[in-house]
């Protein structure tokens, strides 16, 4: 199958695997390809800028150790090989490349058995052709588009593989399965096409907050828990959420305790806040002391989709002593 050097892309776009094409005046490139030789599938990574001799015919092939060889004496008579092309040169330029790939397919043969057509003595104007009989009236290719026709007329199905990378770093080579994992991710296969669908909700952030008004102060002198703030949310998806609560506080006794508890769906999150201040002198905005203490706590919660309630309660350890809070806030934010 002669290829016109003046149009080196004549067949490249149709059958690029293992194609030999001109690089410059007296050098060639070879495309990557997969092939079967002696019953073993191999991958050839390609080669570039391979020198060819001037004023002669060069024989280009992949040898049994998966390396391109170029000879001017003809095809080897021993050993296993995959023929690629014959390259004709004259006057310091390549004048013709004759494609010798066996039907752009696989080989599993010795050099003797692949020498179906003796091209010795052919000129650049000669046309090389091969034909093989396939018995049967129905020529069905098993394996679909992954089927290859060998030079001897038999079929082979390629064991196509992939290289898996994460942000450019190789995780595995020659993998055969792609597993799509994630909330809201689905994959469907239809023949040779795989469609991956990611639910729009997977990209939706979620944030909710409740907080006190400017200057708002909540005070209790009771030992039973008193509700300060409540945040009701509906989680859009199951996953990980960050819950944060903050408040300023004081207590007007140095011998009894300020107490606060935070709950998710009626269950305590973490230990309760129980603290006995060292100073109860003065007053601040109607509270029983001029002291101002602040606290912030965060929790990462793995929860299911649906409704959830978060609440902040305070109390005093001794009835009559005043516990106060201000600048209180509850935040709910989706993380993963």
Topology pattern, helix = H, strand = E: EEEEEEEEEEHEEEEEEEEEEEEEEEE
CATH hierarchy, class of the largest domain = Mainly Beta
Which fold does the CATH topology of the largest domain refer to? Answer: Jelly Rolls
Give the assembly state of these chains: single chain
Characterize the largest beta sheet: strand count, sense, and whether it forms a barrel: 5 strands, antiparallel
Count of the domains: 3
Largest sheet: spatial strand order:
1-10-9-7-8
> So what's the overall shape?
rod-shaped
Q: Distance between the terminal alpha carbons, to the nearest Å? A: 57 Å
- DSSP strand (E) fraction? over 45%
Per DSSP, the total helix count is 1
Structural class: mainly beta
Q: Could you report the average pLDDT, rounded to the nearest whole number?
A: 79
Low-confidence stretches: 1-13, 104-146
Helix content: under 10%
At CATH's second level, what is the architecture of the largest domain?
Sandwich
Would you mind describing this structure in some detail?
It is a single chain. The protein folds into 3 domains: 2-114, no CATH class; 162-202, no CATH class; 207-334, Jelly Rolls (Sandwich). It starts with a strand and ends with a strand. The protein is an all-beta fold and 336 residues long. 1% of the residues lie in helices and 48% in strands. A 5-stranded antiparallel beta sheet has the order 1-10-9-7-8, with no helix packed on it. Strands 17, 18, 20, 24 and 26 form a 5-stranded antiparallel beta sheet that branches. Mean pLDDT is 79; it is low at 1-13 and 104-146. The protein has 1 helix and 26 strands. The chain has one helix at residues 111-114; strands at 2-3, 20-24, 27-30, 33-37, 40-44, 47-51, 57-63, 68-71, 81-90, 93-99, 147-149, 155-157, 162-166, 169-175, 185-190, 193-198, 207-211, 217-220, 226-235, 239-251, 258-264, 267-268, 273-275, 293-303, 306-316, 323-334. It is rod-shaped and about 110 Å long.
